[in-house]
Design brief:
CATH topology of the domain at 319-481: Glutaredoxin
Strand order of the largest sheet: 17-16-20-18-19
Distance between the termini: 125 Å
Oligomer: single chain
Helix content: 25-40%
CATH architecture of the domain at 319-481: 3-Layer(aba) Sandwich
Shape: rod-shaped
Number of strands: 20
Length: about 625
């Protein structure tokens, strides 16, 4: 709004040249020559620069007699009369270079008129090229193009024949030549051999070097360019490079940040005064921003509430407020912050299965840093950054604005990362915030892969995140391999243990079955023995209860019975014909064939004697005088 500079690269370059001192950068751009400071009465004048830290002292030393003028000056009604801004143009036409100096209120047509006198070419035949904003017409006012002080242009005359074929052929040959640029990267001491055609521009070289070294064009500090290479739009053929090989050196431009106290001291020496016509300084609100956000920096005084409460007891509650406040300031498109303690974030990121592990990104916010608003709104909330973080990182945040919260984080940092990392963060100045820490979990400790400061770009931030991801991916593949091997060993051991357990179970079951079988056999043997003993006792009892066998010469009627056993043996006995059939049954039972288990059968006629009445006599059942019987087991 103050300088009319709309090119972001040019603005950042000016800020870096002034060590990010905003006031000094503005004073370096706004013309200050021959400003006249008038009193409110318009009578006395004070000659000297109206801007700059030395304006008062210079005025006092150069005009001691005008000290009364200071007594009559009313600051609120100061008027600055400035000369128009002067622009320098170097115009290239074939083998000639013409220097033109004009006020910024001049038009493009006036440049052509000057060139017409210098080059003896009609202005209507000229095509003036090299404008950074594209083609312009003759009526365009230079001030509307927002040009830098030094500019390079070139003239084309397609309607005019070339003066001589030799010069045109030499220029065309130079454009078709290939230049070998040997570029040395100062910080890493590495050389790159780059081939460019003569038609390539210096800007194209710098962009290619950015791809190789990751140093943005605006951060590149070069050595070795010829003095004639004054503009990045120049081709290599006309820049004065040594053919066919030229050596260059590139490094990263250092950007030391002045402390807040120094900036405040310088601010007290700078007077921002408005023009009498109100044309040179426009209210920032006309551009849709307030005073605190004129240059992308939001004043902490304008914020409604802090990002995080001071001395919060619960880290999860503090992170909830941080996320809500971040969304209210910068919108809903932002990284998904992990809600919980730092230890819980470690657990989530590092201690799962190797395939599920992620990097841990710790965002350290600081409301008083000049870089915070730009970093959050333009980089941290960029869709590409948000998407990449959500896929590959666990993102945890903390607010370092309050001293108590800062001390608390440093304590956590010392415990988890060691005193070296804590000291590194402790020494970071306010204007170096916000910080972005990339953490990778390892077996023995947690390693800080990268500390990204706030003065970066989206591309550089993405490249550093991707570089950290490459390191993590290599480590993750090793961890996955180790984990798979460990799981395979554990599976083999588990299978062996299971097989051993099953074998033990089978042996125990077999042993128990054998024991049960033996116990059953023993029980059956016992029962059998008991039954045999009982049977033997019955047999003996029956044998003892039998009446004595009558003799053959007995005078009583005797019946002689011959009995065949199932095994084919025979036994005989004499019974009195008057004896009951039960006596025969008892005799057979005393021989081991109880009538409950065996049948006693007669032959002629075949009959089952055991079915007869046991109380009848042998004579009555017709087992007299003799009979052959045989035993048969009952079914």
């Amino acid at each position: 709004a103050c300088t009319g500079i709309e090119n972001i690269d040019e603005a950042i370059t000016l800020l870096e040249q002034n060590n990010w001192d905003l006031v000094a950068a503005i004073n370096g751009v706004i013309p200050q020559e021959n400003g006249i400071l008038q009193s409110e009465y318009g009578v006395e004048t004070l000659h000297g620069p109206a801007y700059g830290p030395t304006s008062h002292s210079a005025a006092a030393s150069s005009a001691p007699s005008s000290s009364s003028a200071f007594r009559h000056v009313v600051p609120s009604r100061q008027i600055v009369e400035r000369q128009p801004r002067m622009l320098d143009f170097r115009v290239e036409y074939r083998d000639r270079n013409v220097d033109v100096v004009l006020e910024d209120s001049s038009t493009v047509g006036e440049i052509k008129h000057i060139l017409e006198n210098e080059l003896q070419i009609p202005a209507s035949k000229m095509l003036l090229k090299g404008w950074k904003t594209g083609d312009v017409d003759d009526s365009t006012v230079l001030k509307s193009l927002h040009l830098p002080k030094n500019n390079s242009l070139y003239v084309l005359t397609p309607d005019l024949p070339p003066p001589s074929s030799s010069h045109s052929g030499a220029l065309q040959e130079s454009l078709n030549q290939n230049f070998m640029l040997i570029v040395t990267h100062r910080e890493v001491q590495r050389e790159y051999n780059l081939n460019f055609s003569g038609s390539s521009t210096i800007q194209e070289v710098k962009r290619n070097v950015y791809d190789l070294t990751s140093i943005p064009v605006r951060h590149q500090l070069w050595e070795g360019w010829p003095s004639s290479a004054t503009d990045d739009s120049m081709t290599l053929a006309v820049s004065g490079l040594t053919f066919p090989c030229h050596r260059l050196t590139v490094g990263r431009r250092s950007s030391p940040v002045q402390t807040r106290e120094q900036s405040e001291e310088q601010c007290t020496d700078v007077h921002m005064v408005s023009d009498s016509d109100g044309d040179d300084f426009e209210d920032a609100t006309e551009f849709g921003v307030d005073d605190g956000e004129m240059f992308g920096v939001a004043s902490s005084a304008l914020r409604k509430s802090p990002m995080m409460p001071e001395n919060a007891e619960n880290e999860g509650d503090a992170l909830l407020q941080f996320t809500a406040e971040f969304s209210s300031r910068y919108g809903d498109c932002h990284p998904v912050y992990f809600i919980g303690s730092l230890e819980a974030a470690f657990q989530e990121a590092f201690y799962g299965k190797a395939r599920d592990r992620k990097l841990l990104a710790i965002y350290l916010h600081h409301d008083e840093s000049v870089l915070t608003n730009v970093f959050c709104s333009q980089m941290l909330c960029a869709e590409s950054i948000v998407s990449y973080l959500s896929q590959n990182f666990i993102t945890w945040a903390w607010d370092m604005t309050k001293e108590a919260n800062r001390a608390r984080f440093l304590t956590m940092c010392t415990r988890h990362f060691g005193s070296v990392v804590a000291q590194t963060i402790r020494t970071q100045k306010t204007d170096q915030f916000p910080l972005f820490l990339i953490i990778m979990g390892k077996r023995s400790s947690n390693e800080v892969l990268n500390v990204i400061q706030g003065n970066t770009t989206v591309d550089e931030l993405m490249m550093r995140l991707m570089a950290a991801m490459e390191i993590f991916s290599a480590q993750q593949q090793e961890d996955i391999k180790d984990e798979d091997e460990r799981e395979a060993r554990e599976n083999v051991k588990r299978e062996q243990d299971e097989a051993y357990r099953i074998s033990l179970e089978a042996d125990r079951a077999k042993r128990e079955a054998q024991e049960r079988e033996m116990a059953e056999q023993f029980r059956l043997e016992q029962i059998r023995k008991e039954q045999e003993e009982e049977r033997e006792a019955i047999r003996l009892s029956l044998e003892q209860s039998l009446p004595p066998e009558p003799k053959e010469e007995s005078t009583e009627s005797v019946s002689k019975l011959r009995i065949r056993t199932p095994s084919g043996e025979f036994f005989e006995r004499r019974f009195l014909a008057s004896s009951k059939l039960q006596v025969v049954f008892d005799f057979v039972a005393s021989k081991g064939y109880p009538w409950e288990e065996y049948k006693l059968l007669g032959t002629f006629p075949r009959r089952d004697v055991t079915q007869l009445d046991p109380n009848k006599s042998l004579l009555e059942v017709k087992l007299y005088p003799q009979e052959t019987l045989f035993l048969e087991a009952k079914e």
